[in-house]
Design a protein that fits this description.
The complex is a heterodimer.
Chain A lengths: L5 H14 L2 E4 L4 H14 L4 E7 L5 H13 L4 E5 L6 H4 L5 H20 L3 E3 L13 H7 L5 H4 L4 H10 L25 H16 L5 E6 L2 E6 L7 H14 L4 E5 L25
Parallel strand pairs in A: 1-2, 1-4, 2-3, 6-7
Antiparallel strand pairs in A: 5-6
Helix pairs in contact in A: 5-6, 9-10
Chain B lengths: L2 H14 L6 E5 L5 E5 L5 H4 L4 H9 L5 E5 L8
Parallel strand pairs in B: 2-3
Antiparallel strand pairs in B: 1-2
Helix pairs in contact in B: 1-3
The chains are: A alpha/beta, B alpha+beta.
Chain lengths: ~280, ~80
Amino acid sequence: MTTVSREKRERLRAILRECESVVIGYSGGVDSVFLARVAVDVLGAPRVLAVTGKSDSIASWMEDTARQVARDFGIPWLEVETREMDDPRYAANPSNRCYFCKSELWTRLSSVAAEHGMRTVLDGSNADDVGDHRPGAVAATENAVRSPLLEAGLTKAEIRAWSHELGLPTWDQPAAPCLASRLPYGISVTPERLRQVESAEIALRAMGFRDFRVRHHGDVARLEVHPAEIARIPAHRAAIDAAVRGAGFRRVLVDLQGYRRGALNEGLAAAQLVQLGGLA
Amino acid sequence: MSADERVAAAERALVDRGVFGATVEVEGHQREIAAVRVPAAAWERLMGPDGATLADAVKAAGFRYVALDLAPADADA
């Protein structure tokens, strides 16, 4: 397994001490869980508040993970309802959709920080996120949100390795962005469509698939399954077809290239990409 | 290239690579998906290491995504 240098560990701790007291955008994913756990170590629980934004775009199992890990590891935790779905600019699902969602989230978390007397708001961006299409990073910058994992130069592999050392159950959890990321740009985000995606993904997870996405193309579902798992599809063909149709899709397709991060960005022109690390 | 021309080119690409009896339909709100149906005997090959190579060949006909229909080959789409 990857090792994490002493310099990076110290750098992360130093950044957290500099922040003094923190509100962390806490999705229940690998990065934010790790950040919250280390923050409690460094600053002490009274100076940490992990906050999960609750909305239709967050898978219910992520919310459950967030709650459970916070309880098991002594991380102070709060859930706040976010209302990005009420914003027509978000619901229209443009290529910078994440900006409107994150703008709502970081505005809410900045208010929470002020109410609780916490000095700094943090996110879980890491060094591997640099270069990705990340319009939400603009909203983070506008709200003075800091990214200690990115600042410390920690990669995803290093975060997983350190998480394993800490005994965090999320150390090998697949990446799990919000459910709206399953809708191609231009297909409006509605609670009903998000429920369809979640229902289909729950069914596939119950069949033992771990790393996949159900992409919502109107009445067609296009499944992206990690290449390491794709060979299992023929054995489950009928069950997958029935389960995904049961979620409300007319036709169920399996992408021959398998799951790859950011597949729905493949149709974007370079001018539409907003990359973390390319921001001032 | 029109949608019909893309379909013919995609089906030809599969035949050229030894996948016989495949049909291709166009799906997606931007008509960007090649939905491929193949006889059951070809399933293992498309879901195996050859799948990505075959997808590249079909994409070259003008599609962004290439995906296999999970319905049985004799079912209505």
